[in-house]
Amino acid sequence: MKNKALSILALLSSLIFSYNLAAQNIPNSMRGTVNQQKEMISMLDSFNLAAAKADYTTYFNFFTDYAVFAGTDAKERWDKKEFMVWAKPYFDKKTTWNFSALERHIYIDPSGTHAWFDELLNTQMKICRGSGVLVKEPNGWKIMQYILSATIPNEVMDSVVKIKAPIEDELIKKL
Fold first, then answer.
1. 39 occurs within a structural domain
2. What would the pLDDT profile of 56-99 be if each residue is shown by its tens digit?
3. What is the pLDDT of residue 32?
4. 123: which residues sit within 8 A by CB, 6+ positions away?
5. What CATH number should be reported for the domain holding residue 154?
6. CA distances (Å), 163 to each of 77, 159, 173, in order?
């Protein structure tokens, strides 16, 4: 029993040590300041809230004029204007999406003008991954690129591939 307790303690210690080493691999200069992190977290949360409230103007003000949005479907890649046209009926009908962050990682370039993030989101599609690039503009952080992807557990990947193969095989031929 004593050996088992020591083994568990050794395992926990090595896991904690490994986690700390992994966290140290990211230079502090890429984490930004606490205030920068808070500012971007608030911005991304407000971005998601604007969609949930179907606030079209506020939502799209979070994007730069030259932003690109890529959705979960391989055919969903739009510049800001195209995305606005696609999304307008959903905002008008108040049938938008309600995403909330489950986990988020934000990194900032040393100049403090660009950042990138990835996040796991709780959505109507279950867990999705959002990732993007942000740029600091005079009126705050803006989204230059946002990519939304559906996560697929490895245990069901083969089944999902079988379902989507006929659709995407045709798309592959066109591309």
1. yes
2. 999 999 999 999 999 999 999 999 999 999 999 999 999 999 99
3. 84
4. 97, 98, 99
5. 3.10.450.50
6. 22, 6, 17
Range of the domain at 88: 30-174
Q: What is the pTM (predicted TM-score) of this model?
A: 0.82
Name the nearest CA neighbour of 136 among 2, 33, 5, 1: 33
Torsion of CA 84, 143, 126, 104, to 10 degrees: -170
Position 117 in a domain: yes
Tokens standing for residue 24: 């140290």
Give DSSP secondary structure letters for 35-74. Answer: HHHHHHHHHHHHHHHHHHTT-HHHHHHTEEEEEEEE-SST
The answer to whether residue 166 sits within a structural domain is yes
Beta strands at 126-137 and 140-150: parallel, antiparallel or unpaired: antiparallel
Count of the separate structural domains present in the chain: 1
- Tokens 């309600």 belong to which residue? 98
Report pLDDT digits (tens) over 96-151.
999 999 999 999 998 899 999 999 999 999 999 999 999 999 999 999 999 999 99
**Per-residue pLDDT, 143:** 98
At 39, list the tokens. Answer: 């500012």
